Amino acid sequence: MTRAALPPARRAALTMAVALTLAGPAAAQSPRVASLIERPGPALAPTRSMQAGDRLADGTSFTPPPVVIAPRRPPARGDAPPGPEDAATLLADHVELSGNQVLTASGGVVVWFRGARLIAERVIYDGNAGTLAIEGPIHLTEPGAEGTPSEAVLVADAAQLDEDLQDGLLTGARLVLARELQFAAAEVRRTGQGRMTTLTHVVASSCQVCATDPTPLWEIRARRITHDAETRRIHFDRPQFRAFGLPIATLPVLSAPDPTVERMTGFLQPRFRTTSGLGFGVMLPYFITLGDSADLTLTPYVSASRTATLGLRYRQAFTNGAAEINGALSDDDLEEGTRGYLFGAAAFRLPRDYRLGLQVQTASDRAYLLDYDVTDADRLWSGLTLDRVLRDRLLTSRVGRYETLREDEDEATSPGLVADALWERRVRPALIGGEAGLQFSVHAHQRDSGADIAGRDMARASARLDWRRSQVLAGGFVAAAQARLDADLYRIRDDSRFDGTEARAIPIGAVELRWPLLARRGGAAHLLEPVLQVVWSPDIDDEDRVPNEDSRLVEFDEGNLFALDRLPGRDAVEGGLRANLGVTWTRIDPAGWSLGLTAGRVLRADPDPAFERYGEVLAGRQSDWLLSATYSGASGLAIANRALFDSDLNLSRDELRLGWLKPGFELSAGYLWIDAVTEEGEARDVSELTAATGWQVAQGWRATAETRYDFVADRAQKAELGLEYRNECVTVDLSVSRRFTSSDTVRADTDVGLSVRLGGFGRSRDTGAAPVARRSCLR
Asked: Could you tell me which residues are beta bridge partners of residue 484?
């Protein structure tokens, strides 16, 4: 192996360390080469030369010395002497050095210089001119960028480059950016120290091209394409877009980001949308960067002369948070006048772990949000939030205004302005043990109406002190004791049925006994746990109760079977002496699946009037039976069912959930049945199915479906279908949805959407939802 060092020809010295893999006699292999090079004429190789690794007479290995060629002219004044990073390393089968500063390397040539790697068949370096004449096939890359988004690969038949391997001319070349977008050109010229790459008579595509089938799915042909490595933008001169080899469209000029770009001003992928209300339309977003931390997207939407819409999205990131504003203004023939919406949100981190949130939501009408596929929400909230969450304390507060879009709700008699604040601290008292908590909360809401009863306004200040301690007893029993004291002060206006001020204090005490039993049989583990909990709190007199604004939706499930109070809010409180009974059984199989059963019931000394009004399933001296079952399988299947029924086995509520997740397929489904008698405000039973699924139909093809079906009305409320195809160069997304519900303000509607994204322009965001179909070439 022989090394040679070649000084620079122009500015900084170019030093080449040449590692030779000897395939036969070559020049510059003798220890006497240094003196021979100074003579005119070529250096003659000896008949037999010592090679790297040969043993000398003293038993040591032979290492050839470097060969230094002095520059014909000194470096320019002020240039720093060459350092190790300025050295170029060359590997070749044959190397020849001539006296006129010409180095010729041939046979498997590899050159590394300043992060660039050149692979070629033959390289001729002219030290006087500082140029490289290269014969191919040529492969020029930056190994340090391999596998990164900034990777660029140049392949050519022949090239003439400068000594920095940056600027020059390449013929029969192909440029590949980020392993995604490729250009095939008759000629490639690089200037500006590799910044500008100009390709002439060029074809661009991100599709896999095979020798047996050279026609890509899509391609862009142009007279000239220029890639600016600094701005990372690609400029096309007279581009012609082709699909399956057929011309589709021609433009005078076109500019697009290269595959490494995440954010750049320009048009985003268009979306085509057809609805029964608006007809066929096109949305063409235009993205504008406003520095590194902000951007603006303007989306014109024109639909069959039936709407003229301008959508807006503004985003900004701060050192301690972020903000986003979305909105649109529309002039259509669905409603008179200008319609639109405005949604905004911001979140900020404040000192001492505080978090501040801001939200704005408003719309001209609910039908607008549905017509333009914004959201299904029918209540909008605007306001401020302030939170702080630590290990042993919590602060959460919010103040804002609700805007209702429901037809059955009056804006004037619905609580509009609402404020809430809660502070809680958890401690472990050393004297009595266990865990204790102290909580303070404030709530207030105001209606726009001043009418009696319907315009009621209310404010409440509350305090809560609670304590719980558990103890393991002999025989494996687990005993627990709980205590809680609630104090509330109410201020009530515009409701003649109640006093203007109301105060109350409600103590609650409970004892609990559990007996967990564990057994193993056949490798499976069985856990059986019966539970008895006795709770007491004073009866709440009907005449003394306050208005119930927040405890009207009562649930009964495994989560609150052993709760001290099953009413969700603070206005209504569960009272009286009661016993919560339950038993759970769980089987865990070594094969990876598990099965769990829970059964429970609530027994009361006297009926609680609160449940007579708001929760039929918990009314009377005996509640309905609660029975739930869960199954979790090793194959990704999970099933959960919860049923409520009385002593006569009359079913009042049943809820079934099913989830199945495996490679290439996911399913989520649920069925709900509610007896209208047990639900306040329900005029008819609820029997409803919801399901959403997605599956990998084939390589690159993914389908999704979602539905909501009302069995009582015997019709679907909503149905959606989606189909996506993705390969290495294109993503096509087709969606079809139908909303069947209609009213005076909401129309039944069918929506068909289509979007197409070409790969290679801007960095793609792979969601990983479906494998990409890649074209394979047969060899």
From this structure: 466, 508
Rg of the chain's alpha carbons, rounded to an integer? 39
| Amino acid identity for residue 315 in this structure | R
- Asked if residue 646 has pLDDT above 70, the reply is yes
* DSSP character at residue 521: E
3-class DSSP state for residue 141?
strand
Tell me the pLDDT band of 526, cut-offs 50, 70 and 90.
very high
Distance CA 703, CA 119 (A): 45
| Torsions phi, psi for 751 (to 5 deg) | -125, 125
Helical (H) or strand (E) element with 34:
helix 33-37
Nearest Cα neighbor of 755 from 710, 716, 722 is 722
Q: Tell me how far CA of residue 3 lies from CA of 69, 85, 120, 757, in angstroms.
A: 12, 17, 19, 51
Terminal Cα distance for the chain, rounded:
36
Going from the C-alpha of 422 to that of each of 3, 351, 384, 386, 387, the distances in angstroms are 77, 19, 14, 10, 9
Query: String of b and e for 240-262 (b: at least 16 CB within 10 Å)?
Result: bbbeeeeeeeeeeebebbbbbbe
Task: Give the span between the Cα atoms of 258 and 270, in whole angstroms.
Answer: 18
Nearest to 240 by CA among 232, 231, 249, 227: 249
Q: How far is CA 130 from CA 88, 127, 430, 646, 762, in A?
A: 13, 5, 83, 95, 37
**Predicted pLDDT of residue 193:** 85
Ranking 56-60, 228-232, 387-391 by mean pLDDT, the lowest is 56-60
Q: CB neighbours of 302 closer than 8 A, spacing ≥ 6?
A: 281, 282, 308, 309
Residue that is written with structure tokens 């002439």 in the block: 200
Sort 506 into a burial class: Cβ within 10 Å, 0-12 / 13-18 / 19+: middle
Instruction: Find tokens 């030779």 and name the residue.
Output: 20
670-680 pLDDT per residue, tens? 999 998 888 77
Confidence (pTM)? 0.79
Instruction: Name residue 719's beta-bridge partners.
Output: 707, 738
Dump the DSSP string for 190-233. Answer: EETTTTEEEEEEEEEESS---SSS---SEEEEEEEEEEETTTTE
Q: What is the pLDDT of residues 296-347, one digit of tens each?
A: 999 999 987 788 999 999 999 999 999 999 999 999 888 888 999 999 999 9
- Give counts: helices (H), strands (E), the chain: 3, 46
Distance CA 188, CA 170 (A): 5
CA distance 129 to 267: 45
Judge contact between 278 and 332, C-beta under 8 A. yes
> Residues 711-733: what's their mean pLDDT?
90
Instruction: Lowest mean pLDDT of 5-14, 171-180, 470-479, 509-518, name the range.
Output: 5-14
What is the per-residue pLDDT for 36?
A: 25
Residue range 38-52, pLDDT digits in tens: 333 332 223 333 344
Cα–Cα nearest to 721, from 710, 732, 707, 731? 707
* Coil, strand or helix at 63: coil
Q: Specify whether the CB–CB gap between 509 and 486 falls below 8 A.
A: no
| Cα gap 164→82, rounded to integer Å | 13
Q: Output the DSSP codes for 335-387.
A: SSS-EEEEEEEEEEEEGGGEEEEEEEEEES-HHHHHHTT----SEEEEEEEEE
Q: Residue 661: which residues within 8 A CB-CB, separation 6 or more?
A: 636, 667
The two three-digit tokens of residue 600, written as one number: 């429970």
Q: Which two tokens stand for residue 385?
A: 């939030």
Tokens of 706: 């979602």
Q: Are 576 and 605 in contact (CB under 8 A)?
A: yes
> Under a CB-based contact definition with an 8 Å cutoff, are residues 113 and 90 in contact?
no
CA 131 to CA 124: how far, in whole Å? 8
Length of the chain: 779
